[in-house]
Design a protein that fits this description.
Blueprint: E1 7-8, E2 18-23, H1 29-36, E3 47-49, E4 55-57, E5 64-65, E6 83-88, H2 98-115, E7 122-124, H3 125-128, H4 142-147, H5 166-173, H6 180-191, H7 201-213, H8 218-221
Parallel strand pairs: 2-6, 2-7, 3-6
Antiparallel strand pairs: 1-5, 3-4
Length: 223
């Protein structure tokens, strides 16, 4: 283990209820590890997985790693106190290696039951901070994770939706309350990275389906 000094206690008694997936956007995993362990950089994650599937634990899961920054999910901030952060060594443009994905899947199969995190709690950094972040980016295979119950994906054959309901449905699934263009960018980055142009009924239909199947727990979100 090569522990990072960049962590603290989780605040206000919060426990992990999310897993946030990142890419490092650096040339090598070794370079990323140096940054994540540099006290002057004040960034970290709980885990780093390199392209060959080698897993490095950097911060104990009980502690609050500094990976998420500003942003919200399901109506609440301080995502660092509510999440476990996983960094994948990737430059942001390349496909994610098979061994790396396998290691991520094995790790998620341990984390989710350990903290009772549902599949919809596995999110992208770009989901909770659309105005700042794009990781893990359009090359990440969310459908692959969903097929193993390690994340979620829209239902097959969902009907087209009402575009006027797009923002309310996106918020109902968990997306932040932000302008349309930012939320649409985040939704497409994860679920329709090939899509172009203005908001359409497919975008609206997929978020309506997700909001219906995986609604935010409003009582918990506003507690």
């Amino acid at each position: 283990m090569s522990p990072s000094p960049n962590f603290g206690p989780r605040r206000d008694g919060l426990r992990p209820e999310l897993v946030v997936i990142h890419y490092t956007a650096m040339a090598t995993a070794e370079a990323a590890e140096r940054v994540l362990c540099d006290p002057e950089r004040e960034v970290s994650a709980h885990y780093l997985i390199d392209e060959n599937g080698v897993l490095t634990a950097l911060v104990d899961e009980e502690m609050r790693a500094w990976h998420a920054g500003a942003g919200t999910w399901a109506g609440r901030g301080d995502v660092n106190s509510r999440s476990i952060g996983i960094e994948l060594a990737n430059n942001g443009f390349s496909p994610f290696a098979a061994r790396q994905m396998e290691a991520l899947e094995d790790l998620l199969k341990e984390i989710l039951p350990r903290w009772n995190i549902p599949p919809e709690g596995v999110i992208a950094h770009s989901d909770m901070a659309p105005e700042r972040k794009r990781d893990p980016g359009p090359r990440f295979d969310w459908l692959r994770l969903s097929r193993q119950g390690l994340s979620v994906w829209p239902s097959d054959g969902f009907p087209g939706g009402d575009v006027s309901n797009f923002l309310s449905d996106a918020k109902g699934f968990g997306y932040p309350d932000l302008p349309l263009e930012l939320v649409l960018q985040a939704v497409r980055l994860r679920f329709r990275p090939w899509a172009k142009g203005p908001l359409d009924p497919v975008d609206a239909g997929l978020v309506a389906d997700l909001a219906r199947r995986f609604p935010v727990d409003r009582a918990r979100a506003t507690a």
